[in-house]
Amino acid sequence: MRDIILIGAPMDSGKRRKGCLMGPDSYRTAGLTEALTGLGYRVRDWGNMAPAEHAADDPEAHIYKHHETVGWTNRLWRTGKEAMAKGLPIFLGGDHALSLGSVGGVNAYAAMQGQPQFLLWLDAHTDYHTPETTGSGNLHGTPIGYVTGRQGFNGFPKVERPIPQENVCILGLRSVDPAEREAMQQTKIHAYDMRMIDESGIAAPLSEFLAKVAKAKGALHVSLDVDFLDPMIAPAVGTTVPGGATMREAHLVMEMICDSGLMTSLDLVELNPFLDERGRTAKVMVDLAASALGRRVFDRPTRSFS
């Protein structure tokens, strides 16, 4: 059983609404370590990171805290590569711009191992923008664009081996702006909105994607945004979009990930405790992480994709 490495990223530079910097300690307070040690893992908490040295930001600039986000990306990239050699890292956010660094780092490690990288993105948004296309200027909407090799990320670490578009699966979409929609339709990214999930269920597309990861013997990074969930059950997010995944749908996704045995790294992002109700959302996210790592009602044979 691999060690679990907790990496706190109290990052608030990817968007303008404050509060996500409190996320990492909220997961700890909600019992993440205890939940995972109860499943038999050895949990090593590396504490909260700080961004690498970076230039000063212009508060009037359109791209929100570009240089601070570059600093975070550099720090999390290096930390992610190091953690992958020692266990299964869980990146505790922090806003979703942390995935510029977390995914960049684990992908770089997979490249060193000669292993293809896959990305499962659980989110209401595609996050396929670039600094040149974002209308809001918020960099938490750019990670998939970055790690798949889109241009316009000047100053960020160069992604030497972009993740192939067909190695990315997004589940839970329900808020996509026109520019992103047009760009996404020209890609090979597997994208499933909530209408598709309502019509056909969430298990079939996920099973198909996991089978593809297994066939390629790939590394699987899972990025779980609070806004994947319906805000009725997870209100502590600054980008609430009604109509998200139910509790059972979310647990099914995590249980299927666990059954596959394929996950090699995990993000828990966009938790804003300032917007929460007595820690409710933090506890939900901890429960989902535990499901992805083995918590279940009844033991059952692990499904083999080989």
Shape: globular
Biggest sheet strand order reads 2-1-3-8-7-4-5-6
**CA-atom Rg in angstroms:** 17 Å
Structural class, please?
alpha/beta
> Whole-Å distance between the termini?
20 Å
Determine the strand fraction and express it as a percent band: 15-25%
User: What's the overall average pLDDT, rounded?
Assistant: 94
**Unreliably modeled segments:** none
SSE order, as H and E? Answer: EHHEHEHEHEHEHHEHEH
Blueprint (SSEs and pairs):
Layout: E1 4-9, H1 23-29, H2 32-37, E2 43-48, H3 66-84, E3 88-93, H4 99-112, E4 117-122, H5 143-147, E5 168-173, H6 178-184, E6 190-193, H7 194-200, H8 203-215, E7 219-225, H9 247-260, E8 263-269, H10 280-292
Parallel strand pairs: 1-2, 1-3, 3-8, 4-5, 4-7, 5-6, 7-8
Helix pairs in contact: 3-4, 8-9, 9-10
Description of the molecule:
The chain has one domain: Arginase, Chain A. It is 34% helix and 16% strand. It is built from 10 helices and 8 strands. The protein has helices spanning 23-29, 32-37, 66-84, 99-112, 143-147, 178-184, 194-200, 203-215, 247-260, 280-292; strands at residues 4-9, 43-48, 88-93, 117-122, 168-173, 190-193, 219-225, 263-269. It has an 8-stranded parallel beta sheet, with helices on both faces. Strand 7 (219-225), helix 9 (247-260) and strand 8 (263-269) form a beta-alpha-beta unit. The two termini are 20 Å apart.
Brief summary:
Helix content is 34%, strand content 16%. The chain has helices spanning 23-29, 32-37, 66-84, 99-112, 143-147, 178-184, 194-200, 203-215, 247-260, 280-292; strands at residues 4-9, 43-48, 88-93, 117-122, 168-173, 190-193, 219-225, 263-269.
